[in-house]
């Protein structure tokens, strides 16, 4: 044990003396300082590249949202985009960024009576009549919201067609939000 203590003491003493000798030597301190500066520069460059890559990757995952508008809550229809088959019916819901369901208070319309029929009520229903694209519009006072619906022929949606899509909600006061969306695969 005494031998171990003596050995540790000798190593400590030797490293202390070596440090003092290097500090006194003018050439050694310059090369040591330049090595430290070089290492610090490399570390700073790595950190900068890491931060840039992090920003690039995080920017890809962000969903662009519309800016808040003149203090009034904006209206949204759910679904904001839909795919339907001829003869199929679907309900639509209206709400604002504060989370208030305003479906029954709105005036509803469709852009094409050829493509769709609107059944009014507490929760309006749209029935697809013919192939094509049309808009569903909800209006409260001067504020409006629109959803786009594409009608397909046949007994199933084509591969890659949107069945139901929700728009991002800017200025939402609700905590959380959508953290991950996974596409459904038909069987």
Write up what this structure looks like.
The chain has 187 residues and is α+β, with helices and mostly antiparallel strands. The chain has a domain at 75-165: Immunoglobulin-like, CATH 2.60.40. The chain contains two helices and ten strands. The chain has helices spanning 2-24, 26-61, and strands at 75-78, 81-85, 89-91, 93-96, 107-110, 116-119, 125-128, 132-140, 143-152, 164-165. A five-stranded mixed beta sheet has the order 5-8-9-2-10, with no helix packed on it. Strand 8 and strand 9 form a beta hairpin. The longest helix is centred in the N-terminal third of the chain and has 36 residues, at 26-61. The model is unreliable at 6-10, 17-22 and 61-65 (pLDDT under 50).
N/C terminus separation: 74 Å
Name of the CATH architecture of the domain at 75-165: Sandwich
Shape category: elongated
| Count of alpha and pi helical runs | 2
User: What's the count of strands?
Assistant: 10
**What is the CATH topology of the domain at 75-165?**
Immunoglobulin-like
Strand content: 25-35%
Q: Biggest sheet, in brief?
A: 5 strands, mixed
Estimate the helix proportion, in percent: 25-40%
Report low-confidence residues grouped into runs of 5 or more.
6-10, 17-22, 61-65
Structural class based on helices, strands and sheet pairing: alpha+beta
Question: What key phrases describe this protein's structure?
Answer:
five-stranded mixed β-sheet; 2 helices; alpha+beta; 187 residues; Immunoglobulin-like
